[in-house]
Amino acid sequence: MGDWLKDRVAVVTGGGRGIGAAIATMYAAEGAAVLVNDLGGSGAGEGNDTGPADLLVREITESGGTAIADYTDISDHEATAAMVNRAIEEFGRLDILVNVAGILRDKMIFNLEEKDWDAVIAVHLKGHYNTIKPAAQYWRKQRDENAHNRIINFTSIAGLHGSAGQPNYASAKMGIVGLTYSCANALSRYGVTTNAISPGAASRLVATVPTERLHDDAKDVMHGPEYLGPIATYLASERSAWLNGRVIGARGTEVELYNIPEPIRSVATHELWDMDTLAKQVETHFRGPAKAPLVAPWFTD
Fold first, then answer.
1. What is the number of alpha carbons within 13 Å of residue 269 lying toward its C-beta?
2. What is the pLDDT of residue 203?
3. CA 157 to CA 170: how far, in whole Å?
4. 169 an active-site residue?
5. pLDDT score recorded for residue 297
6. Where's the Ketoreductase domain (predicted)?
7. What is the mean pLDDT of residues 19-40?
């Protein structure tokens, strides 16, 4: 066992399987006490099962780590607040919140039913809000600007690049980026950094994506979720205090820093635009840069 997270306390949602389990396992191995949250539902968010969280907690404790299992549905606002407060009561504090839990219900926009839109938004975007709010309330009460509190959210290339077959998922994942930026600006005064990881790893959700929709280079870097453990551990550590409000890409052995969106060209006038003048200016200055393809780099749609 290491000591990167010695004596720190973490909540990891979706922690029973896949990426969440890899992160929870490494956190415990590096000295953190971990609340492993997992509803145990299907990849589409149906059903529940205490088994995944229980099994991982047993593996952690048998290896000498500290962990407790939790089965809260993170789309439930009140229940999720109780879950965060349980971690604080059980372990005496909260230092790290990692939002991994997610579901997929893929359809093209013209075939997407309202219930499938609502379910994905509820688990991903509202789920992040549901965990961050009580954690932020706790840290605000501490009023320690020198603390090393961490929020680590999970976005996706599906949102960052606009996966055609995942309008609900893409919308939620880009919403999470905006939420990350907002929390980074709002919570730094309480010793909190907020960053997001855009992961690439073999998981049960990725396994539901038809093989023909994946580029060949994407298949080549689909390493196991354990490859995401190190960067998630670094972001959770005290050493990462310098990094706030950024998106980190992690796929296989590669770690990337995404840019923050900013204007790349502009045109201006001193009065209300004349339509012909505006059209000429926009076409002259924007057409070239705008030709860059808006394509998710791992997907063929």
1. 12
2. 58
3. 8
4. yes
5. 58
6. 8-200
7. 98
